[in-house]
Amino acid sequence: GRMCGRGNDSTPTSAARRAAEFIGLRKRTTSRTAESAFGESDGADWAVGEDVRSDAASRRQMLERVRARAAEQVAQRQRTRQAELELETKERERQREAERARQRVRESEAEREREREEARQRQRERMRELERERERQRRLRRREHDTAAAAAAAAAA
Known about the structure:
Layout: H1 12-23, H2 31-37, H3 43-156
Helix pairs in contact: 1-2
């Protein structure tokens, strides 16, 4: 009884007592109850031992299930986060692509505007050219007219 105190783990009784206390069979078991709890006496106690053993096993299974569920939740959160990151990356890429497209549109519009301006410039240049040509024609005609008039005047004189 008292010789196998709580410090000594090597004795079956103290191990049984600790196990029984852990399981919550009772707060402080006597060695006799612990022994019979693990079915080390007659058959009636054996049933109790079975219960205790299966109780411990079901606790172990429950712990494992809880751990597995926790691990699964962590994995799920990581997958979700991963998916969110991928979506964010895709969204940023899409926005960059849209910005590049807008940039191309702006550039091509600017290009067209430059071309239109150049066309207007050429048009103005042609108009000035025509105007100069007409002016030259008028001067020629006036000179011819003046010359003819002078000749007529000379002839009349």
